[in-house]
Amino acid sequence: QSVLTQPPSASGTPGQRVTISCSGSTSNIGTNYLYWYQQLPGTAPKLLIYRNNQRPSGIPDRFSGSKSGTSASLAISGLRSEDEADYYCASWDDSLSGHVFGTGTKVTVL
Amino acid sequence: EVQLAESGGGLVQPGRSLRLSCAASGFTFDDYAMHWVRQAPGKGLEWVSGISWNSGSIGYADSVKGRFTISRNNAKKSLYLQMNSLRPEDTAFYYCAKGATVSVAAAGPDYWGQGTLVTVSS
Lengths: 110, 122
Description:
The complex is a heterodimer of chains A (110) and B (122).
Chain A: E1 9-12, E2 18-23, E3 34-39, E4 46-49, E5 63-68, E6 71-76, E7 85-93, E8 98-101, E9 105-109
Chain B: E1 3-7, E2 10-12, E3 18-25, E4 34-39, E5 45-51, E6 58-60, E7 68-73, E8 78-83, E9 92-99, E10 109-112, E11 116-120
Parallel strand pairs in B: 2-11
Antiparallel strand pairs in B: 1-3, 3-8, 4-5, 4-9, 5-6, 7-8, 9-10, 9-11
């Protein structure tokens, strides 16, 4: 079972801003870096955000991450149809001595 | 360009074993930790195991501890996952993933392979 909790779904119209939350605890988000991954239908996950708020090269600045205490969020601004995907947060968990993923959020572009 | 190619998946009976391999290219393999992450069909991601650059630090999810063994051969730029005593709940796509640093714990995966499907069924 996932120890990081995300809403199962989020949606918006093209151009809107969508925010996805990720809730954890002091043993994971509260102490360690948070990562976000995008998984387009039928493909492997892709790194979107690392170290809480850093974007790898090639990731547009429409995607932004933030962290506060034991929670984090991913914001997608200027929503596009190609953003329709599953999004997962992840972090190292000191108690479990392993990486943990969020429950995943399916983003739909209306 | 980072490339990760998994192989070894397939249909296996409960209780049997399977060995997955991952061939890496496009980066200095022995400078990074490596991970296995799985995804049951239609479900979320689950970290399975990770190994540091020199195999000095290894971690497993509780769900596979004692049954799965991760290893790497830096000379061959290859990552492996030996899976024993397989159960139906191990059925999933298994992804090989490159770590962002030398350490398993310091950072999560940054590049992923396309995955190989393991189906455990009688």
